[in-house]
Amino acid sequence: MLEVEDINNETISIAGGGLAGNALAILLGKSGYSNINVYEKRPRIPVASEKVFTMALSSRGIKTLKEIGLFEEIKNISIPMRGRMVHLLNELFYSYAEKNFGEQVNFHFETRCQDFDIKEKSFTKINNKTGRSKKVVTNTIIGADGAYSSVRNQMIRLPRQEYSQSFMSHAYKEIFIPAGPNEVFPDVHPLLTNLYEDFETNPTTPLVTIKTYPWSYQSNVALIGDAAHAIVPFFGQGMNAALEDVLDLYNCLKEMNEKQQQKTNGIVYSNTFTNGITFDRNVFEKAYKQYQVNRKSSSDAIAEMVIENFVEMSDKVMDKLFQRKKKVEHLLEEKFPQRYISRYELISFSTTPYIEAQRVGEINKSILHELTKDQDTESDPSNVDLDKADELIKKLLSK
Ligand SMILES: Cc1cc2nc3c(=O)[nH]c(=O)nc-3n(C[C@H](O)[C@H](O)[C@H](O)COP(=O)(O)OP(=O)(O)OC[C@H]3O[C@@H](n4cnc5c(N)ncnc54)[C@H](O)[C@@H]3O)c2cc1C
């Protein structure tokens, strides 16, 4: 018989203390909610404070970090695009949350959650060190537990829950190349001292795209980040998409709280939360619904675009027509700034919704096709008909 933790009406439970879970916990704390509990199965990994690392976030993730109030701190630090980066970023989140919202946000490390009951809003938490288990009954469960989410595994048992997972024929393996005295290629070979050993021993990770819908059930549960939509890593957007989810959900909660406040008090609510806000089932249900509608089409769009990007990178880079189109695209970006923007630019350096980037990307493709279809692939790309390009951009891309 499991021990049952007291039912506490203020509790928000977040399964998974990764980037999405931590960022959301902080924003909920900032909103004035209290008793926010984040359960993370891994231990807290200490990070040497003197370490310098490079930033690998795009403007999408940055927007969320600004809302959290952590961007200034992160801006001066650089993060390599490796697993280590995630630990460093998570550690920043933990210490920031402890410093600013220590009363409201509690982290439970080495605590795995399982046996989620979506209707009862309960789960079992297990302390990895002691093996002790306890049943937790909560107000709402936020599944931020990554691509292989246990919360989602429970949700897919609900009637009419859509779910798909598809694996690429390629897999992923990390090989470490230590920093050399400079970055030119002749230096690389001697640095690959462990190449063969690493290749043999490092784990091979499958590359999976996971889609599911809906992302919530009443006010009981919601999925965020990779738990809601795992994508393959070829655009470097998974973390950015996860942080976009967090900001969207935070904004939806804010909007629904304001509406609720107006309804009950007849007064206009200020655009920030007041401290000491209480959990309201109605608000959470509406916010979850709005958030999933806002984010689903964009998350599908990025999932599709990443696969396309992989095909381009692996199959088409040597293709003469593809190379020519890329050169013409660069020329158009240079000659028609702000009017012709490549899909890559929209995804990686803007906060344009992914679904809009996909739409524009399709139009860009047709423009490039029109401009290159009658030309010899060997001819100079700068000979492209710029008047025709101007006309096509006006006709197809001007809103
Ligand atoms: C090879 C590779 C390279 C990538 N490169 C980039 C990049 O350059 N830029 C980018 O934007 N994205 C990148 N990503 C994607 C990015 O890492 C993820 O999209 C992002 O980490 C998702 O955040 P999350 O919080 O949703 O999930 P996660 O970061 O996976 O966090 C989930 C957390 O939940 C915990 N957890 C899981 N199950 C339980 C449980 N039952 N109980 C308690 N805790 C649990 C896990 O320990 C984990 O800490 C890359 C991914 C891969 C695989």
Automatic annotation (TrEMBL):
Pfam families, alphabetized: FAD_binding_3 (PF01494)
Gene3D superfamilies reported for this sequence: FAD/NAD(P)-binding domain
Keywords from the named record: FAD, Flavoprotein, Monooxygenase, NADP, Oxidoreductase
Matching SUPFAM superfamilies: FAD/NAD(P)-binding domain
GO biological process: one example: kynurenine metabolic process
Cellular component aspect of the GO annotation: mitochondrial outer membrane
GO MF annotation, one: FAD binding
All residue ranges annotated as the FAD-binding domain in the record: 220-256
Cofactor: FAD
Domain of life: Eukaryota
Name the UniProt record assigns to this protein: FAD-binding domain-containing protein
Organism: Heterostelium pallidum (strain ATCC 26659 / Pp 5 / PN500)
